[in-house]
Write a structure and sequence with these properties.
The chain is mostly helical. 78% of the residues lie in helices and 0% in strands.
Length: 104
């Protein structure tokens, strides 16, 4: 559950520092795609990358990767609910498109 809090914090800190994914990736020594996976899927990197990432974002590893507690659980639940809502909307759009194609 920590992974969504982690990914949201990395993305927020990147945006606060006005970095693109490519710029942050260069500072950390990884690919922009890797930063994308961290932000979108909550991939928690190795300690070396985590340390470098925190340094590049002018924060601490502890802030990016907090201990699991009630606050992080609540944030994680809210993020998961938001993702579910987005997926439900996508499904509804796809179902409408499928229905329209079947009627033609």
């Amino acid at each position: 559950m920590i992974s969504l809090v982690f990914s949201n914090r990395v993305k927020a800190m990147r945006e606060n520092n006005n970095y693109t994914r490519a710029q942050l990736a260069k500072k950390v020594g990884v690919s922009a795609g890797y930063i994308g996976v961290i932000e979108s899927r909550g991939l928690v990197p190795s300690w070396r990358v985590l340390y470098t990432l925190a340094k590049a974002l002018h924060t601490s590893e502890d802030y990016l990767l907090p201990e699991e507690n009630e606050e992080t659980k609540t944030l994680e639940i809210a993020a998961i609910k938001e993702q579910i809502e987005e997926k439900c909307k996508e499904i509804a759009k796809l179902e409408a498109r499928l229905t329209a194609l079947e009627e033609n």
